[in-house]
Design goal:
Blueprint: E1 3-7, H1 12-23, E2 28-32, H2 33-36, H3 40-50, H4 53-56, H5 64-70, H6 75-84, E3 93-96, E4 99-102, H7 106-116
Parallel strand pairs: 1-2
Antiparallel strand pairs: 1-3, 3-4
Amino acid sequence: MNIQIFGKSKCFDTKKAERYFKERRIKVQNIDLLRYGMSGGEFDSVLRAVGGVDKLIDWDKRAPEIDLMRYMDDPAAKEDKLFDHPELMKTPVVRNGRRATVGYCPEVWKQWEEEEK
């Protein structure tokens, strides 16, 4: 498995995801989303894997950009806004090749482990 965890240093779900893989001795690459963001290819891959930009946005966050995105009809405009402001993403974003999850999803990660065996 080739696991990448995109997260925020102060996010509890990111820390839980890191602990999940560490306990199972699975190597991960941790990427600070606020510091480094995602490349364009990574962002597009995650969007396809999770099922669209709306699943990647942290709708619970209180920010003017989130309020603006609630009323945007154009998904491409939302994608551009989210790419430019990674702090608005729900974390952690966990990638395994072309597959990805958003948030803490141990049941999905367990499936990935079983498929690797």
